[in-house]
Amino acid sequence: MRVLVVGGAGYIGSHAARGLRRHGHEVVIYDNLSTGYAGLAAGFELIQGDIADTRMLTSSLRRVDAVMHFAAHAYVGESVENPRKYFRNNVEAGLALLNACIDCGVQKFIFSSTCAVYGVPVKVPITEDNPRLPVNPYGVTKLVFERALEAYDQAYGLRFASLRYFNAAGADESGEIGEMHEPETHLIPAAFEAVVGMRPQLEVFGTDYPTPDGTCVRDYIHVNDLAEAHVLALQHLEAGGSSIAINLGTGRGTSVKEILDAVEKVTGKPVPKFIAPRRAGDPPALVADPSRAEQLLHWKAELSLDQIVSTAWKWMQSSSARALRK
Ligand code: UDP
User: Fold this and answer.
1) Are residues 88 and 194 in the same domain?
2) CA 313 to CA 266: how far, in whole Å?
3) Which of 75, 126, 187 to mutate to test ligand 1, by most ligand atoms within 8 A of the CB atom?
4) How do residues 245-263 score in pLDDT, each as one tens digit?
């Protein structure tokens, strides 16, 4: 298939683009490079455009059979301080993309959703029928988009997959692409920054949670496992499968403390750190029940926590990452 990877110059989108190519699909990347990097799209056709630019989108959409949509803002804290930015990009511009798809006859749509749509889960591990009650504007914008997909399916025959990611982490084995955010807020790259002296210390946000070691528990999933699930979701739609909403996680919970232990093991160096207050909006534990993805897509996360941390470390030290940081 020919696939437009919108936001393909970002962290998860760039890995999905390579995943599609590995499976023999043709990829065109569409990205406004506001937070993405042309370097992450190297080797692919890159159209530099905004999803709110319907004219430019239309000419790109006419060339493809399906869309994968990764172009969104994704910082919970920022969404609380600046919800306008989130509603404008994730909802308003996202809907412009979706409408352009319908108008151009593109009926297969893979959406980057998030476990943030669940808010504070009623039970962990989280299944897809957990109520969707997001507790921050970021999660609300993703839920609004999921609802639009459901309505467009009913009314216009759109086929979609809402893929609810847990904590994406790690990098491609090649060391050529990986996670790059400005500023970096995610735990694993932030811990590396503390190890190499790019930040003075890592803040551990709370050690008094009701978890085994008192730190927050998350479900860290390798970005290439996510990429693989995107390809399978697309192939499910291509084979005539109905629309789906599925969790993408490992089913394995890891605490902040366990992540820092893994970082110390892989780097062979201590992580300079101090205990800080809890970060607003962090639930104690978020772990996926990934069984629906296994049933519907025959997909299971394959890569271990050690592989997540070691590939992320390889990327952090790579010449490609250094070139992007300049
Ligand atoms: N975390 C932390 N210090 C940091 C960044 C994150 O203690 O500098 C914790 C955070 O409170 C959460 C976990 O690490 O429990 C994962 O946070 P991250 O921002 O990586 O992902 P999120 O779960 O917010 O999507």
Assistant:
1) no
2) 8
3) 187
4) 999 999 999 999 999 999 9
